[in-house]
């Protein structure tokens, strides 16, 4: 235990490196398209709770509970706020392809909608919000995206009851993406992982 206490920073760097590799691999397998529901959101917070608990108690056993409460309060409140929200997260995707697929599927499922595109005046980059309001229900879709060749896209399905539609959108988005290289797709996370693993291992072995 003394060895672990003396090398907490090194073990933390190694852990961050492994997590970066794992996250990049999962994202590559999913072709950069993932969905998140209230259930998966709570599951993620639970895993975060376990991870943060371990780190905090290792670093600060006396005030661990107080620090833990402060760290987790914001994500827990956010999760409760989004109980009726499902999301589709898309990394490095063409906005035109995304919106074409979304509107094709909405039309196929018989949704009548009004579309509204607004720029985010507070953002430094060219960030936009595209809202889809449905005529006969309180359901809506809010899409956050950037006006660039490849954008990170976040689609929030608010009060949306049709889970099959969301599943079909995820499948359609994955199928429409051209083949991607693992190394080029994850180059940033891999660089971070290599640096963390290298520094952690070197320091751990006393070099």
Descriptive terms for the model:
alpha+beta, elongated, six-stranded antiparallel sheet, single chain
List the SSEs and their pairings.
Blueprint: H1 2-6, H2 8-29, E1 33-36, H3 38-59, H4 64-81, E2 85-93, H5 95-108, E3 113-119, E4 127-134, E5 140-146, E6 151-158, H6 163-176, H7 182-185, H8 187-204
Antiparallel strand pairs: 1-2, 2-6, 3-4, 4-5, 5-6
Helix pairs in contact: 2-8, 3-4, 5-6
Structure explained in plain terms:
The chain has 207 residues and is of the alpha+beta class. Helices cover 57% and strands 21% of the residues. It is built from eight helices and six strands, in the order H-H-E-H-H-E-H-E-E-E-E-H-H-H. The protein has a six-stranded antiparallel sheet with strand order 1-2-6-5-4-3. Strand 4 and strand 5 (140-146) form a beta hairpin. The longest helix has 22 residues, at 8-29. The radius of gyration is 21 Å and the shape is elongated. Keywords: Membrane, Transmembrane, Transmembrane helix. The chain crosses the membrane at residues 12-30, 42-59, 188-206.
């Amino acid at each position: 235990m003394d060895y672990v206490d003396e090398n907490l920073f090194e073990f933390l760097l190694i852990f961050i490196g492994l997590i970066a590799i794992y996250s990049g691999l999962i994202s590559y397998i999913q072709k950069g398209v993932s969905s998140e529901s209230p259930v998966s959101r709570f599951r993620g917070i639970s895993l975060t709770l376990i991870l943060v608990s371990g780190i905090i108690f290792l670093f600060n056993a006396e005030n661990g509970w107080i620090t833990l409460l402060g760290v987790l309060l914001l994500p827990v409140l956010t999760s409760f706020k989004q109980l009726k929200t499902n999301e589709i997260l898309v990394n490095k995707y063409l906005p035109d392809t995304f919106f074409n697929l979304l509107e094709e599927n909405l039309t196929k499922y018989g949704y009548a909608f009004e579309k509204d595109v607004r720029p985010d005046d507070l953002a430094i980059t060219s960030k936009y919000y595209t809202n889809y309001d449905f005529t006969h229900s309180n359901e809506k879709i809010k899409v956050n995206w950037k006006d660039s060749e490849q954008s990170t896209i976040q689609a929030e399905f608010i009060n949306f009851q049709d889970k099959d539609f969301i599943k079909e959108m995820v499948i359609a988005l994955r199928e429409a993406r051209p083949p991607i290289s693992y190394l080029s797709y994850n180059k940033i996370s891999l660089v971070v992982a290599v640096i963390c693993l290298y520094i952690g291992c070197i320091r751990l072995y006393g070099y």
